Amino acid sequence: MLELQNIVKAYDQQTILNGVDLKVAQGEIVSILGASGSGKSTLLKVILGLETPDAGKLFYEGQDLTQCPMEKRPFNIVFQDYALFPNLTAYENLTYGLKKKRQLTTEEELQEFIDLLGLKPHLQQPIHRLSGGQKQRVALGRTLVMKPKVLLLDEPLSALDGVIKESIKTRIQMIAKTLQLTILIVTHDPEEAMTLSDKILVLNQGEIAQFGTPQQIIQQSASPFVEEFIVKQLETKRHNIEAIFQPKRPQLAVI
């Protein structure tokens, strides 16, 4: 379990995070949802270890990691811009982190990741010839082969549209279920959070506005802010909010 206790972070005397508490179970997908400036990216940096909180504690499986440097935390991140090496092939990008840590992942496990992400047809392609969805899958695979305990995703779907976005959402859900991997996702899109996550942490000006399942947030909004930010936005996009929660047959598009 990942646990945050009373996390506080300020920059130049401006409080960005104010008393954030969070518990995430193994295998859960949790979206960190909020408007620009709500503190969601700062919270991701604190979890990853890029920032140290001014107050509060961060635990993983009971171990205090608050002062633990980023490289020693069992976490990894996929950045919004993918951060792939343009001069390398998809396979070379995928295995780049294993050059000095090849023992982390066996060849059989590597092939399982490739199959899970549907990357086999694209392995020898240079990065510049891949679509946005294909690049996203390579970025996910490059992180997964390092076997993180917690996977952090920074706006993973913001540059994708339509069928490609839905396919990546399905793959993220498959990864969490297949690998029992804890996944935290930063997003500003309520519909994305609702359809992708087991639970949602809604931030408003650095404080928790609500934490719960998508159904709880829709049916029992904790404040007028949550009602306005999430429910009203969804109502402008869909005539029937309940349609979001209808079981859907997984679709893995060829992308």
Automatic annotation (TrEMBL):
Keyword line: ATP-binding, Nucleotide-binding, Transport
UniProt superkingdom: Bacteria
SMART domains recorded: AAA (SM00382)
Protein name, as recorded: ABC transporter ATP-binding protein
InterPro entries on file: AAA+_ATPase, ABC_SmlMolc_Importer, ABC_transporter-like_ATP-bd, ABC_transporter-like_CS, P-loop_NTPase
ABC transporter domain: residues covered: 2-230
GO molecular function list: ATP binding
Membrane-spanning residues: none
